[in-house]
Amino acid sequence: MRLVSAADRFEAEYQAQFKHAFMQGDCERMQGCARVLEHIRNGRSCIRILVDAHPLFSSAPPAPYADVLASTECVTDAHTFGAVLSELDNLIAEHARVVHAGLPSQVLRQSALYCFVQDLFDAKRSGVALRALQNMYAHLRSMPVAGQDASGEQQRRDVVPDEATKDIVYLSTVASIVSLLLEAADKWSHMEPVSLPRGLGRRCVFSAFEDVIDEYVQLERRVIERAYEGELSQWTLKVRNDSMRDTALESNASHKDESLRLVNFRLRQQQMEEYKDRVLLLVQDKLQISMDTETAGDGTRRRRRSSASQKEMPRRTVVGDVLGHAPVSIDLCLNMVLTNRDTIDRLAVFASAPQDMRLRDQAQDAIESVFCVLLRGIGNHVRPAYARVVAELKDLEHSVMATMQTDQSALAQLEQQTRSSFIRAELRFFELIHLCDLCVQILEIYFKSFMTAFIDEHDFLNTCNQERKALERAVDDSVAVGMDCVIEIIMRQTQHIVDTQMSADYSPDSNVSLTLTPTVACTRAVQFLGESTVILQSMTGHRQMRTVFLGEIGVRLFYVLLEHIKRFRITEPGGFQLIADLNLYYDWAAEHVDPETLRYFTALKDLANCFILAPRDLRGFLQDQYSRRTFDGVMRSEEVYDVVACRSDYRNIRTQVEGHCDFM
C-alpha cells in the first residue's frame, strides 16, 4: 500500500514538472519528464495534460480558437462543414507539431494525437467536430417545406419542395460529410512530423455518428419504401386507365387477318430484342459498369464515388415501353434499382467502419434490408401483371368452351373473335415474359456488380439470397401457370377445328376420286398449331423450357387425334385419306417436338396402315408392330384395339383378329 502511495506521489511530482515545462515551452524538460511517466501507466498522464491544456477546450478560448468554435454554429451543409473541417485539419496539424516537440517516442506522440482527435469528436468534451455535426443535423431536419411559413433569409433560401426531398437532402448530406471526414482521416495518416494511424482516425470519425445511426438507417428504409410505394401506385393507376381505354378501342376495332397479326408478332419480336439491347446498354451506363464484368461476382464494387453527395431526387430514366402499353415498366424497375443503388452507396459509407463497431453491423443489416425492399418492390410490380394476363387467359378458356357449344349459324364469327382475342392475349403474355426476364436480368447485374461486396451469394441462409430465389420462383411459377393456360387454349381450339372433320372424309363414296391431300380440317388445325407454336417458342429464351412446353402440346395433340379417329368408321379409301392427314400432323411434330414425343406420332401413323390392309394381312401387321415395340410407352393394347376396331368392315373380320392375336 505504501509502495502504491509512493508511486502516486512520484507520478504527481513528474506530472507537475511536465506541466510546468509545457507552460514554459521547455521541450527538453518535457521529454525528460515524459520518459519517466512513460514507465508509469504508459504515459497517459502526460498525454492527458497536453490535451486538457489545449486552448480549444478551455472555458474562454482565445480569439483564433473562439473563431473556430463560432464557425460550428454556421454549418448547414457539406460545403460549410468543409470550412470547419479545414480548421480542424489545421488544429490537428498544430497539435502534431506540439506532441512531436514535447514527447520523446513515436508511440507516445501518436497516442497523444489520437487522444486529441478523439476529444474533437467526443460528446462529453463537446468536441468541435461533433458540435458542427449537431448544428447541421438541426438545420437539415428543420428546413421548411414549400407551402410552410419560412422566416429568415436563410430559411427561405433553403425551402425544399416536399418532405421526401427534405429526407433525401438530410441523408445525402450526412453520408457526404462522412466521406469528407474519411478523406481527412486518410490525410492525417500521412501527416508530418506525427501521423495518426488510418484505422484510429477512421474510428474517431465513425464514433461521432454512433448516436444518429439508428435514426439514419430507419429513415433510409422509410424513404425508399415510400418512394417505391409512390412509383407502384402511379403505375397501378396508369394500368387501370390504359385497360379502360384498350377495352374501348378493342370493342370498336375490326379484326385483322391472322397472318397479318403473325407478321406483327414477328415485328414485335424483333423490336423486343432491340429494346432489350438498348435497356442493357442503358443499365451499363447508369450503373457505370462494364457488361463483361457484371457477372464476375468477385465482390469488387464498381460504383461512382460522388453518389453519396447528391442532394437531388433520384434521376428519372426513360427507356420507353415497347409497342404501346407494356404489361410491366422497365423504366419503373430501372429507377427502383437506381434509387436502391443510391441508398446502398450512402449506407456503404458506414459499412466501412471497423469490424468491432456496432455502427458497422447496423449499416450492414440496413444494406441487406434495403436490397430486400427492392426485391419485394419488383415482385409487387411483376406479380399483378402476371395475375392480369393469367386471368385473361383463363377467361379465354371459358370462351373457347362456349364457342364449341355455339349454334353453327353464329359459329364462324364467334370463332374468329375468339381466335383474335387469343392471339392478342398470346402477344401480351409473350411481351410480359420477356420484360419480366429483362427485369430479373437487371436485378442480377445489379446484384453481381454491387451487392456481392456486402452479401455472400453462396450463403443460402442469407435473407437477400432467399428473397432473390423467392422472386425467381414466383416469376417461374407465373410463367408456368400462364403457359399451361396458353397450351390448354391451343388444344381446345385445335380440338374445335378437328371436330369440324366431315364423316365423308374417311368414308368417301365409291364414285369420289381420291386426291390423297390433307383434308380441310387437318390443314386448318396444323396451320393454327404452326402459328401458335411460333409464338410459344418465342415466349421463352430457354431451350429446355421450350422443349418441355412443345412436348406437352405434342402429347396432348396425340391424344386428341387418338380420340378423334375413334369417332369414325373408316373405309379403305378413307384410310388413305387418314394417312395423308397423319403425315401432315407428323410433319408438324417432326419440326417442333423432341424425338421422344415424336414416337407418339410415328406409332399413330404406322398404326393407320391397318385401314388399308387386306383382312388376311392385318394380324401379321399387328404382330410385326408389336415385335418392333412400336407401341411401347405410347399406346396400351386396348387403345390399339379401339383404333383397329374403327375399320368399317371390322364386324365382318372380327373373328380373324380377336382370339388369334396374343397381343389382343
Sheet of most strands: none
Q: Count the helices. How many?
A: 24
Give the ordered list of helices and strands: HHHHHHHHHHHHHHHHHHHHHHHH
The backbone outline, from C-alpha atoms, is elongated
What features would you describe in this structure?
This protein is mainly α and 664 residues long. It contains 24 helices and no strands. Helix 3 (44-52) crosses helix 6 and helix 5 (78-102) runs antiparallel to helix 7 (128-141).
Q: What would the keywords be for this entry?
A:
about 675 residues, mainly alpha, 24 helices, about 70% helix, elongated, disordered C terminus
Entry summary:
The chain is built from 24 helices and no strands. It is mainly α and about 675 residues long.
List the helices and strands and how they pair.
Elements: H1 2-24, H2 27-37, H3 44-52, H4 63-71, H5 78-102, H6 106-120, H7 128-141, H8 153-157, H9 163-188, H10 198-207, H11 213-252, H12 258-287, H13 330-351, H14 358-404, H15 408-449, H16 463-498, H17 503-506, H18 520-538, H19 543-565, H20 572-592, H21 595-607, H22 615-627, H23 637-644, H24 650-657
Helix pairs in contact: 1-2, 1-3, 3-6, 5-6, 5-7, 5-9, 9-10, 9-11, 9-13, 11-13, 11-14, 12-13, 12-15, 13-14, 13-15, 14-15, 14-16, 15-16, 15-18, 16-18, 16-19, 18-20, 19-21, 20-21
